[in-house]
Specification:
Blueprint lengths: L8 H18 L9 E5 L3 E4 L2 E5 L12 H14 L7 H5 L2 H13 L4 E5 L2 H12 L5 E5 L4 H10 L2 E5 L4 H9 L7 E6 L11 H11 L2 E5 L14 H4 L8 E5 L9 E5 L1 H10 L1 H4 L6 H16 L2 H20 L10 E7 L1 H13 L2 E2 L2 E2 L9 E6 L6 H17 L5
Parallel strand pairs: 3-12, 5-6, 5-7, 7-8, 8-9
Antiparallel strand pairs: 1-2, 2-3, 4-10, 9-10, 11-14, 13-14
Helix pairs in contact: 2-12, 4-12, 5-6, 7-8, 13-15
Length: 403
Amino acid sequence: MDFHATDDAVTRRINFFTDRVMKLRENDLYFYNQPVEEIKGGARVIVNGREMGMYASYGYLGLLGHPRINAAAKAAIDKFGTGTNGVRTLAGSLTIHTELEETISAFKHTEAAITYTSGYSTNLSVISTLMGRGDYVISDKLNHASIVDGCLMSGAEFRRFKHNDMGELERRLQQLPGDVAKLVVADAVFSMDGDVLDLPKTVELCRKYGAWLMIDEAHSVGLLGKTGRGIEEHFGLDDVIDIKMGTLSKTIPSVGGYVAGKKELVEYLRHASRAYIFSAALPPAQTAAANAAFKVILDEPWRIEKVCDNGRHFIDGLKKAGFDTMLTTTAIVPVLCGTDERAFALTQACQHKDLFVLPVVSPAVPEGQSRLRATVTAAHEPAEIDYALGVIEKAGHDLGILQ
C-alpha cells in the first residue's frame, strides 16, 4: 500500500516531518546528520570539505584520538579481533569486559559495575528491570528521553517534578504511600540547559522518604569534580547515589553505558536486565578504549581544569554580549534564540563562518526556548573561543536576537 495515499495518523506524522525537513533543506537551514570527514585534534573538524571549529562535541575532555586510548583499542583488536561471539551471558564475555567494569567501579567508588551497549539501552533496561507495577518513579521534567522511556516501559506509576525544584520533589514524595518501592531519577548535568542537579538536597529527600536514587552522569563525568569523577565529588559527597549510571560515548570516547553500585544490585541486573542478557557484548576495541580513557582522566587532571576554564570563558563572553545562557555553569552552553526560525538562522550564520554549531528546536525544547546547544572542550584554545564569540555576537545583532 502506498502510505502517501492514506490519511491515517501515521501518514500525517510522517508527512509533517518530511515536509518540515524538505522546507529546511530548500532554504539552506537543515544542519543535522552532516557527515564529518575528519576530526582534527578535538576542536576542529572537516565538514563538506571545509575546516570548522567544533562547538557541538560531547567529548568534553578532548580525548578522542588520544594516543594511549588509540593504542589500547588497536591492541584489543590484535588480541581479540573485531567482535565477540555473542551475548555476555553465554559466549561473548571477555577478560577486557571484566577489566573495564572493575575500572569503572574503582573510578566511581562503588563495589561493582555493569556495562551495556549504549547509554539509551542502559536507562531503558535498568529502570524497567528495577521498577514495575505498583511501584513509583519520580523524574525531573528535563531528564533525558531514555530516562522517560525507561520509566514508561517499567509500568510503574510515573510522576514528574519541576526542573531542579526540591520543594516539588518533596511534595511528590509526600504524596506516595509509605510501603511502596520508590525511585527518584535525574540527570546530574542537564544536557540541554547545562545546569547541575541539587544533589545534596535530593539525597536528603530520598533518605527521608525511603526512596532509591538513580543519577544519570552522561554529562557530568569529566566535567564535575576536581578529578572528573562527577557530581558526588563536585559536592564533596561520597557514595550517596544508589544507582550511578553513565555513558561511554561522550567524555569517554567509545560507545556504551554503565551502572555502578552495590554488588547485589549489579548481580541482579546481570541476571535480570534484558538489554544485558539479549544484546551482544561491547566490541573489544571499544571496551579497551573506554578502559584506557578512565585512566587517562585520572592521569591528566589538567583537562578538567581547562574545560572548566573554557566553559567560564565562553559563558562570560556570551553574557557580556547580551545572550541568555540560562542557568548553565558547565561546558554545555545554551544560546537562547526564542523561535525555531531564529535558531536556524543563527546556526546558518555561524556555519557560514566555519563554526560547527547546531540548533535545538521544538519539540525537543519548549516553544519559545529554541537555542544553539553550544559546547566547549578541553581541546579549545582561548583564541578559538574568542573567534566563536565574535561570530555569534555579530550574527545575534544582525538577526535581531541582540539589541
